[in-house]
Each structure stands twice: as structure tokens, then as C-alpha cells.
């Protein structure tokens, strides 16, 4: 089925309308992913924006046409592994899926995620990365970029913003031999759909899909700009799209194209409130980090 | 077939009980003094002696999380832990009882850090007495085995649906061997039917589990949990009585008593220290003193009414604890006993004794000292204000 057919013909399994902030692409990603995953899917959504805005359900109401469970902040990979192990005995075709933010994934959930990959648990784990704890008020997380002004890493006379550097969990999981790892971006839907499709076919281990998810509210940009920023993240190589499939790295087509003539990272950060205090030097440092990561990825994929 | 007899450690007894209960999934992480429970189970699965599956994740936090996932799917699940492992799993542990998933967990009790210790003490489970689980405490290796089998019957009872932990003193029971009767599989099958637990996550009947819940609905859930805790009091007694019919062994249900009938002065204890305590009671009895003993087998739900009835008309009560209640500067079971006395409007003099922390020994002579102090309370009709510390040096004078 073509991407168009998948999106047009498959049932929308997520409650209609938009309960997240205007322009939030995280809910769009969930909706798109479920068009591919289909109704034989169990979803785990830990605390975070998607759980907090009530998309998966509230009180006695379910927001999805599939079963949903809300794990704890840090235990989604383990909990859904338990569900999958038990479901495998009843119906091995049922997908057990996590849809978690970056805080629940790369911070408090990293230990359980890494261990689930090590044990080869056959779950599909999505991380929507908005680069901070947005649901609780835009605090810094392990994927917040260096220098970003967040509510727990504020810029001020004695601070240059976030002291940490964005943690690269897709590469971390690829190098520990998860079965399938991919990076996805809502600006590149065909690539997005293909990668979810591939994840549904993998039966021998953990699939990790890391989605760049610009957050208009937390990044301080307009709701109608979120996909533009998503596109800029890919085209500046700030967020390269790649796949790691059973030992082989491949750079995905949109990023190969972008790599030929990348936009400067300054175009990606322009207009974002969290970066507006950055000096020329600090922007250059960010650019150098992006180039270094891109070169590393090219070596891995060569 | 009849039961066979074997010399086994407490940890081996726990593992055999799990095998006999035909548990679907064991998830295990090592921690002293429990480790050999999950080692035995891993070996039983590897050798084909047990049909379930064994998973070995990276921490107790994941142990309880995987169990919750599988438990929500209706599987019969098990793990064992101790001390720090229990503390580390606290978050999913609390959500296991409040999601009403009826598992059994063995706890080889261990003192809590700081400072560092790996030895015995009941502080670990006593500190989580109000996290919604049922607490059974064993006195012997045989009782560990039998209580785990009873535990699944209690947990899975439709009026209960609350997880059970079977607690036993680390090292004293976990590592020491005693002769036990090993139930036959057919007998256990007849006693314990296959679990009939709902599969909560079903793609053919989608619903949300553990969703964001408003307060009025949360109140309903808690009220129902407390109602089930109350039902558990009689279910625990029934399970013990039914077990006695099939296997000929009983543990008193909620409260085990020893030489209590005509006793004026009563000791209340919990766990394996009852061995030394019963010997001390025998010595006192041989001197013509009317001393008896109550062993709390079930700490949660707390059998306050039953305990109040047993304590009515006594002249003094002493409670020996292997944990501390930091807020009341006493033992933990002591406060429970005070609650039961208050509820029954009994004005009986009491004392709190604390010993056995971090593996310290509670000897028969310690308990004899406590019996003397209880006698003083009775004579003066007055409670002892300060907690009695069962130290080695108290035996020197
Ligand atoms: S805070 Fe950001 S990520 Fe969260 S719902 Fe709003 S736009 Fe989406």
C-alpha cells in the first residue's frame, strides 16, 4: 500500500479533534503511527503531553479504539514487555507499543528501555522528542540541546542556559544491538510511514522509533510553524533521519538529500524563544556539534 | 501420592511452592538474602521441572513492572525480593496492589539501609504496610511453602483481588534447613484451581487501564480496595481451614496462639522469633506462671477485632518487634496492638520491646526478660513508657 493509501484508507484509531496544544505534531505522529499499526495494537502511554492532554482517555473513557494503559514515568518498556510476553501466547500478531515523551524515555525510562532491548523484547517503542518536560512546564530533559533556556535551565546573568548536551538515544540503542532503530520526523510523512511499517514486520527484538516533535508552546514558536521547524531540523542535519536494521546503518533519503547542501543550523534555531540569547559563538558551537554527529553517522552508514 | 519429606531451606520451600502453583511467569532479580529463590526457579524452568517462563531483567523496578504487564493479561505471576529491592520497586509495587493484580511475592526480610546491612529485620515490609498489599508472616520453612500456596487462593479470590506477600526472616528462615513435607502436585491442583483472572488489555474489547482518574472515581476505587481488605480477613481464615482439611496443617489463619487459654500475661510477636519466644513461654509455664503467646500471622489486613477478643481480660501485654516505628519511638506491631486494644476499649498495660535489627540475635533469655517486665506491668497495672531494647548486654546483669 502506498503512503497515501495507508493514510486515506486505514481507520483513524485516535479520538477525533486535537486535544493537545494547537499545532502540536506529537498527536499527529500518534495518529499517523496508528494508521499503520492497526487495531490489533495495545498502547502504553506514560505520563507526558500525550497522556496529559487526555488523547488516550480520561476517567472511565477510552480515547483510542485500541486498549490503552498508562504506565509509570519510567517503566513503559518493562510493563509493555510483560504485556507482549503474555500476549504472544494468545495472539503473536498483536503489537505492543509504547508512545512516550523524551523525559520518560531518555531520562527515567532509559534503564528499562535499554534492558528491554538487551533481552530482545518484541515491543515497538516510540519516543516523541520535544526536547524537554513540556507537560509539566518546559523543564530541561536529557534531550534538551546545549544552551537552551528552559524553566529548570534558565538563561540569566549567571547562566547560559542548559549545561548538558542532547543525549543521542537512537545511536545508543543501535550500538547495543536493538533489532531496529529509526529516526522519524512528521515533516517527512512517507519516510515516517515506511519506518513504522518496517517496525511492524520485525519479530525478533525491540524496535525503537525516535520522532522529532517540535513543541510550539515550549519552543516559543507559532502553532502553524511546527512542521516548518520539523523540516528545518531535518534539512539542517540537526535531526538526521536514519535507520539501523539488524546491524546495518542507512541514512534515509530526505537526509541524504539534505546532506548534499545542508541549511545552516542557525535557520533551525531562528525565532525559537529558547535559543534567543545565544551568541554567534554559541551558535557556531551548535553547528560544529551537528556537523560532527553527521560525519559520525556517515561513517557508521558507509 | 502422599507428601514426601525433605530437608529444605526457606528459599527452597518458596521455590517449590511456586512450582506447585503452576505459575505462568517468574521475573527475578538477585538480592541477598532472597537470591536463591529466583535461582532455584530459573533452574526449574531450565530443567523442565516447571512449565512457566523465567525472565531476568535489570532491576527490581522492572521486575514489578513486567509482572504488572503480564498480570494485567491474566497470568499467574511471582517474584521474590528483600530490603532494598522492595524499596527500589516501590513505585510499581504500589501500583500493583491498587490495580488489583492478584500476585504472590516472597520476601526474605532484610533490615533497611543506612548504614549498610544485608542481615535480617522486618523493617522492609513493615515500612510498606500501607501500600495496599496483604502481608502474611511465616514462622517456619513449612509455613513459607504452605502460605505461598494459600496466598494464590487468597489473592485470586473474587472478593479480594489483592496481591499477597509471604514474608519470612532473612537468613533465619531463608538460609536454614528444616524438614518439611512436600505437597503432592495432585493435592495442590485440587486445592488451588487455575487462575480465573480477567485479561484487562484485549484488542477485541478495548478499554483504558490506569487512566488519569478524577477524585470522586479514585475514592470509589479506594473504598472498594478497603472493602476487599475486610473480606480478606475471612478469606485468609477460610484458606487456612481448607488447607488444613487437605494437608492437615493449619497456621491459625490470622493469628496463631500458643498456651494462651488461661494466660494472664501475653506476648505478641511476629515472624520467626516466635521460636525463641515459645521456648521462653514454656520455661515460664514450668515455673507456674500464666504466660501465653500470640503470633501475628497477618499484618495486613490487620485482624484488630480478633486480636481485641484474644486480649480481653489479660493483665498485661508485651510486644516484641523486629522493626522500629520512627514516629512513635516504639516497635511497629506494638502500635497495631495498641490500636486493637483501643478499638476494643481495653485498658491493659503494655510494653514495646525491639530487637533483632540488622541480624542481631533475639535469644530465649531476651524474651524471658520481656516476660519479667510484662509481669511487672501487670503487678503495677501500668504500661512501660520507654521502649525496651533487646541488646546482648541486657542479659549480663
Ligand atoms: S506542550 Fe508542546 S509537546 Fe506538549 S502538547 Fe503542547 S505543543 Fe505538544
What is the H-and-E element order of chain A?
HHEHEEEHEHHEEEHEHEHHEEHHH
Distance between the termini of chain B: 55 Å
The amount of helix of chain B comes to: 40-55%
CATH superfamily of the largest domain in chain B: Thiamin diphosphate (ThDP)-binding fold, Pyr/PP domains
Number of structurally distinct domains of chain B: 2
How would you sum up the global shape of chain A? globular
- At CATH level 3, the topology of the largest domain in chain B is Rossmann fold
Task: Tell me about this structure.
The complex is a heterodimer of chains A (302) and B (397). Chain A has 302 residues and is of the alpha/beta class. Chain A has one domain: Thiamin diphosphate (ThDP)-binding fold, Pyr/PP domains (Rossmann fold). Chain A has 13 helices and twelve strands. In chain A, the strands form three sheets. In chain A, strands 4-1-5-6-10-9-11-12 form an eight-stranded mixed β-sheet, sandwiched between helices. Chain A has a two-stranded antiparallel ribbon with strand order 2-3. In chain A, helix 2 packs across helix 8 (189-201). The longest helix of chain A is centred in the C-terminal third of the chain and has 22 residues, at 280-301. Chain A is globular and about 60 Å long. The model of chain A has no long low-confidence stretch (mean pLDDT 96). Chain B is of the alpha/beta class. Chain B folds into two domains: 4-247, Thiamin diphosphate (ThDP)-binding fold, Pyr/PP domains (Rossmann fold, 3-Layer(aba) Sandwich), CATH 3.40.50; 255-395, Rossmann fold (3-Layer(aba) Sandwich). Helices cover 41% and strands 18% of the residues of chain B. Chain B has helices spanning 10-20, 35-46, 60-72, 83-88, 90-98, 123-126, 141-156, 185-191, 215-247, 274-286, 304-311, 332-343, 364-380, and strands spanning 4-9, 25-27, 53-55, 77-81, 104-109, 134-137, 164-169, 177-182, 208-209, 255-258, 265-270, 291-296, 298-300, 316-321, 350-354, 388-389. Chain B has a seven-stranded mixed β-sheet, sandwiched between helices. A six-stranded mixed β-sheet of chain B has the order 10-12-11-14-15-16, with helices on both faces. In chain B, helix 12 links the parallel strand 14 and strand 15 (350-354). In chain B, helix 1 packs across helix 2, helix 1 packs parallel to helix 7 and helix 11 packs across helix 12 (332-343). The longest helix of chain B has 33 residues, at 215-247. Chain B is globular, with a radius of gyration of 21 Å. The chains are: A alpha/beta (302), B alpha/beta (397). The interface between A and B is large, with 45 and 41 residues. Strand 4 of chain A pairs parallel with strand 9 of chain B, so a sheet runs across the interface. The structure holds iron/sulfur cluster (SF4). Iron/sulfur cluster is lined by residues 20-21, 24, 26, 49, 53, 130, 134-135, 215-218 of chain A. Iron/sulfur cluster binds next to helix 9 of chain A.
Amino acid at each position: 500500500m502506498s503512503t497515501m493509501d495507508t493514510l486515506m484508507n486505514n481507520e483513524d484509531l485516535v479520538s477525533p479533534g486535537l486535544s493537545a496544544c494547537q499545532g502540536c505534531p506529537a498527536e499527529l505522529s500518534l495518529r499517523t503511527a496508528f494508521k499503520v499499526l492497526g487495531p490489533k495494537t495495545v498502547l502504553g502511554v506514560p505520563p507526558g503531553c500525550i497522556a496529559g492532554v487526555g488523547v488516550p482517555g480520561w476517567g472511565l473513557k477510552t480515547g483510542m479504539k485500541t486498549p490503552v494503559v498508562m504506565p509509570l514515568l519510567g517503566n513503559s518498556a518493562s510493563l509493555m514487555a510483560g504485556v507482549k510476553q503474555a500476549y504472544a501466547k494468545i495472539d503473536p500478531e498483536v503489537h505492543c507499543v509504547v508512545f512516550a515523551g523524551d523525559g520518560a524515555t531518555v531520562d527515567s525510562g532509559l534503564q528499562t528501555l535499554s534492558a528491554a532491548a538487551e533481552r530482545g523484547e518484541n515491543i515497538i517503542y516510540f519516543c516523541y522528542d520535544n526536547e524537554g518536560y513540556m507537560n509539566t512546564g518546559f523543564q530541561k530533559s536529557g534531550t534538551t540541546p546545549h544552551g537552551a533556556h528552559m524553566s529548570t535551565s534558565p538563561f540569566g546573568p549567571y547562566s547560559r542556559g542548559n549545561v548538558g548536551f542532547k543525549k543521542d538515544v537512537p545511536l545508543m540503542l543501535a550500538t547495543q544491538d536493538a533489532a531496529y532503530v529509526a529516526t522519524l520526523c512528521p515533516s517527512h510523512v512517507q519516510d515516517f510511514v515506511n519506518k513504522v511499517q518496517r517496525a511492524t514486520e520485525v519479530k525478533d527484538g525491540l524496535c525503537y522509533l525516535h520522532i522529532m516533535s517540535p513543541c510550539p508552546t515550549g519552543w516559543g514558536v507559532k502553532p502553524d510553524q511546527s512542521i516548518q521547524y520539523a523540516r528545518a531540523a531535518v534539512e539542517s542535519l540537526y535531526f538526521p533521519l536514519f535507520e539501523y536494521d539488524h546491524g546495518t546503518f542507512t541514512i534515509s533519503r530526505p537526509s541524504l538529500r539534505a546532506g548534499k547542501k545542508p541549511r545552516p543550523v542557525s535557520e533551525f534555531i531562528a525565532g525559537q524563544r529558547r535559543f534567543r540569547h545565544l551568541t554567534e559563538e554559541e551558535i557556531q558551537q551548535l553547528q560544529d556539534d551537528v556537523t560532527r554527529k553527521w560525519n559520525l553517522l556517515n561513517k557508521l552508514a558507509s | 501420592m502422599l507428601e514426601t519429606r525433605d530437608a529444605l531451606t526457606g528459599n527452597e520451600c518458596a521455590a517449590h511452592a511456586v512450582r506447585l502453583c503452576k505459575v505462568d511467569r517468574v521475573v527475578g532479580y538477585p538480592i541477598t538474602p532472597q537470591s536463591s529463590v529466583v535461582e532455584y526457579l530459573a533452574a526449574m524452568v531450565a530443567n523442565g521441572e516447571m512449565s512457566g517462563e523465567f525472565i531476568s531483567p535489570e532491576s527490581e523496578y522492572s521486575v514489578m513492572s513486567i509482572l504488572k504487564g503480564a498480570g494485567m493479561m491474566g497470568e499467574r505471576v511471582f517474584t521474590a525480593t528483600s530490603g532494598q529491592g522492595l524499596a527500589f520497586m516501590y513505585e510499581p509495587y504500589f501500583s500493583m496492589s491498587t490495580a488489583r493484580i492478584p500476585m504472590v511475592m516472597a520476601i526474605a526480610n532484610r533490615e533497611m539501609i543506612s548504614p549498610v546491612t544485608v542481615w535480617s529485620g522486618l523493617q522492609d515490609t513493615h515500612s510498606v504496610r500501607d501500600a495496599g498489599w496483604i502481608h502474611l508472616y511465616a514462622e517456619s520453612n513449612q509455613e513459607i511453602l504452605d502460605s505461598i500456596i494459600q496466598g494464590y487462593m487468597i489473592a485470586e479470590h473474587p472478593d479480594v483481588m489483592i496481591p499477597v506477600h509471604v514474608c519470612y526472616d532473612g537468613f533465619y528462615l531463608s538460609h536454614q534447613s528444616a524438614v518439611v513435607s512436600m505437597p503432592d502436585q495432585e493435592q495442590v491442583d485440587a486445592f488451588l484451581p487455575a487462575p480465573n483472572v480477567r485479561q484487562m488489555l484485549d484488542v477485541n474489547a478495548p478499554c483504558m487501564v490506569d487512566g488519569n482518574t478524577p477524585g470522586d472515581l479514585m475514592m470509589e476505587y479506594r473504598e472498594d480496595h478497603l472493602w476487599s481488605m475486610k473480606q480478606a480477613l475471612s478469606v485468609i481464615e477460610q484458606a487456612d481451614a481448607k488447607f488444613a482439611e487437605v494437608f492437615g496443617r493449619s497456621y491459625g489463619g490470622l493469628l496463631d496462639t500458643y498456651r494462651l487459654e488461661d494466660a494472664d500475661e501475653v506476648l505478641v510477636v511476629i515472624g520467626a522469633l516466635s521460636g525463641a519466644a515459645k521456648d521462653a513461654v514454656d520455661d515460664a509455664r514450668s515455673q507456674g506462671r500464666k504466660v501465653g503467646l500470640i503470633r501475628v500471622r497477618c499484618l495486613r489486613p490487620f485482624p484488630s477485632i480478633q486480636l481485641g477478643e484474644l486480649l480481653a481480660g489479660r493483665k498485661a501485654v508485651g510486644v516484641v518487634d523486629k522493626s522500629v516505628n520512627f514516629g512513635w519511638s516504639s516497635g511497629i506491631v506494638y502500635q497495631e496492638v495498641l490500636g486493637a486494644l483501643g478499638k476494643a476499649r481495653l485498658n491493659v498495660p503494655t510494653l514495646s520491646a525491639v530487637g533483632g535489627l540488622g541480624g542481631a540475635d533475639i535469644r530465649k533469655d531476651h524474651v524471658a526478660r520481656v516476660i519479667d517486665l510484662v509481669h511487672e506491668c501487670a503487678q503495677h497495672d501500668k504500661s512501660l513508657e520507654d521502649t525496651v531494647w533487646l541488646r546482648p548486654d541486657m542479659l549480663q546483669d
